[in-house]
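Ticket closed. Logging final result for Protein phosphatase.
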Amino acid sequence: MTLVLRYAARSDRGLVRSSNQDSVYAGPRLLALADGMGGHAAGEVASKVVIASLAPLDDDDPSDDLLAQLREAVQNGNAAIAELVQQDPDLDGMGTTLTAVLFAGSRMGVVHVGDSRAYLMRGGQFSQITRDDSFVNELLEQGRITPEEAAVHPQRSLLLKALTGHEVEPSLTVREARAGDRYLICSDGLSGMVSDETLSEAIQIPDPQACADRMIELALKGGGTDNVTVIIADVVDVDFGEDAPIVGGAAGDGSDEFHQGDSPAARARALTQPAPQPRPEVQPQQEDPKVKRRRRFRWLAGAVVVLIVLAAAAIATRYFVLSQYYVGEGPGEEVVIYRGVPGSILGIDLHAYEQGSCPPGGLCTDKLLVPALQEDARIAVKNGVKKDNLDDARKYIDDFLRPHKQLADCKPATGSTSIPPSESAPPASSSAAPPSTPASPSSANQPAGRDCSTPEPAAPGGGN
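Final structure:
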């Protein structure tokens, strides 16, 4: 059996954007898509540089370690972005997502950073095989919002991971390739405009090029508010597959002006070459100063509007985060209360220390430590137990966690009468004489406290 790829790719700037910052590459072994961000010019630069770093992988000599090849190529692309920013500080803030597949016979290596997506149609089942590195997806996975709320959330474009020149760890997986598989790789200009149900219908169009065209059409009908890029690739069992690479989007600008040759290296060089500028036949007329002033005024007005929108988004995000509380593990393994939500965005924590396990201002000689909890309560606290307000978080510690320590924090039963777990034994006097009979081995290591003979009720598993 000889498995090869039959593919098609298409990119469109959409109905709103003035330029296309997506870059795409589709070849016999490599399928790669990058969605640039960071301004009119910087986004397309970042996506183009990263695609150029991956293009040499599209050769005829696959390595046994697909993930090592992908990781090295991504690191090279990320380093190239950092070098460009160092040379031109105006490019600071640019970045790109990346979703790429490296094909080698019966195996597919997948690398992913950001919110571009890869889907797989196999045996009539359509499913997403990448995970969005976004703030809204974190909320969705934690059950804090519904899929319907996620679709219209004001922060749905906020990424937790992207290639910006800073250190980042991409997601890397290896998948089995089977004859009959169909892969869809797309930017969020498609997935954000078209539902998964509609995509699962459109992807069944047999011809890859017709299928890609239909995907673009659906995105434009849905609003076309972003650049939209699509790769459709079929795994087929034939002797020979396609061998002509497709380079599109920002990476395809002017590429047809140059001789690319047959080698992946030549194709990679063509990706980063600037498009030739035509020589004007006539001298352009001097621009009217009034027109120039009006253009400058419109630009300033637009910049002010953008700043206002960004400020409003930042305020909304801050309000949402600071209105949340959760019980988690703090310094020294202490059970503490945090204000905010678990996790971080681009290295910035979304939470801050609020209180320890003891109420502030009160006398506390016994801090509650995570290792002292029963297993289910310990796991819940380590994962973070969400609460609506500070009072609920404090009650959770005092009313649930403290009474449900593990059995090691108890005393052995004496005589034939057991003490109910709800009643605390009186503290032993420091001047009391030691018992005349030695403690049994089973209780020798247990400190004075609750009666060990009574089973402990299970701690709640972190429910709200």
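The two ends are 54 Å apart (CA to CA). No further action required.
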